[in-house]
Design a protein that fits this description.
Elements lengths: L1 E3 L14 H12 L7 E4 L7 E6 L6 E5 L13 H8 L13 E5 L9 E5 L4 E2 H4 L8 H16 L7 E2 L8 H18 L5 H12 L1 H4 L6 E3 L8 E3 L8 E4 L6 E3 L5 H7 L8 H6 L6 H24 L7 H14 L1
Parallel strand pairs: 1-2
Antiparallel strand pairs: 2-3, 3-4, 4-6, 5-6, 7-10, 8-12, 9-12, 10-11
Helix pairs in contact: 5-6, 5-10, 6-10, 6-11, 10-11
Length: 328
């Protein structure tokens, strides 16, 4: 077996499993007679360990291994199980998604959850998008707006992560997320006074949050890094989407992809809104957007700590200060 793990520093958050463990996972999923030809770890992503595994089939399969349970934070706990629980709700876009071949939550091989999936065709947008001239980028974002709108049209019954805990009201779900983010950042030894001010504001104005009374599906990470493009197409054509482990039920405006689409107004990203529809700019929606933005900034702060990027953490305090200034 050819085994190529990513070379990381000792103590890094992402820890590769061994070749022997991958072989055991493969034999459990596909039978003990399966020949594991190679396992090549992807360098992209910052949470799970992901491998392209050649088992001699028509196309390699994908192995994703979750972090050890003790290394998972509150806001990122059992994301792989959450992804699996959410999959049936993605039926409207299932043709674009990888098929799950096997899941194993027993943790008796490597002490970690893992999942086998089919490998999508095409090329990652992270790798292929920049090969197209800027004049074609708006078309890509229009496709992304259509895809996001389809996902957001999926209705749920309660708010919060698909696998739970879920809540009867949107304000309870938001306050739970903010509270868990504060606790995770506190555990990391980071200052949370700015985020506590947001929590206080949200607790004061729960009625504004609860104007959102119909849970919709939020992908949690639907943007350039998690879509596939048709290989060799004359224009960027989205053919696949993946990595929905942060799926939750809530206000579409709170989705990470919406946050990113808003970041660069006046650029090709405006194509997103041409198909998705214009964002709600009412006073209440604008206030909710600030609450959502603070939650995203808190999550980014935690990720930068987890990935050992201390030099990038101060910028999150600048970003949060700008949010607080707008909240008044």
């Amino acid at each position: 077996m050819e085994f190529q793990p990513v070379d990381r520093a000792v103590g890094a958050f992402q820890e590769s499993v061994s070749a022997e463990q991958i072989t055991a996972m493969c034999h459990r999923a596909f039978g003990t007679g399966t020949d594991v030809v190679s396992a090549i770890e992807f360098t992209g992503g910052s949470y799970n360990n992901t491998y392209r595994v050649d088992i001699g089939a028509d196309r390699p399969v994908i192995l994703r291994v979750a972090p050890a349970p003790e290394r998972q934070s509150r806001i990122e706990r059992e994301l792989m199980r959450n992804e699996h629980a959410a999959l049936p709700f993605y039926a409207p876009v299932s043709a674009m998604m990888p098929r799950t071949l096997c899941t194993d939550w027993t943790r008796d091989i490597a002490g970690r959850d893992y999942m086998w999936q089919t490998m999508l065709g095409g090329v990652s947008a992270m790798d292929g998008f920049g090969d197209y001239p800027r004049s074609m980028w708006a078309g890509f974002y229009r496709q992304l707006g259509t895809l996001t709108k389809t996902v957001h049209s999926i209705r749920g019954e309660r708010f919060g992560p698909v696998a739970g805990p879920t809540f009867a009201t949107w304000s309870d779900a938001v306050l739970s997320l903010l509270g868990n983010t504060v606790a995770d950042l506190t555990d990391a030894g980071l200052d949370v006074n700015d985020l506590l001010r947001v929590v206080a504001a949200a607790e004061k104005d729960t009625a504004v949050l609860d104007e959102i009374d119909e849970p919709r599906m939020l992908h949690g990470d639907l943007f350039v890094p998690n879509v596939m493009l048709a290989e060799g197409a004359p224009e960027p054509l989205i053919t696949g989407m993946f990595d929905h482990d942060r799926s939750s039920w809530g206000d579409p405006a709170a989705d990470w992809g919406i946050y990113l689409a808003r970041l660069k107004p006046g650029t090709e990203r405006d194509g997103f809104w041409e198909t998705y529809g214009p964002p709600d700019d009412s006073e209440a929606a604008a206030w909710r957007t600030l609450v959502y933005r603070s939650a995203h900034i808190g999550a980014v702060r935690l990720e930068r700590h987890r990935m050992d990027h201390p030099d990038r953490i101060p910028a999150t305090y600048d970003d949060m200060r700008a949010v607080l200034d707008l909240m008044g």
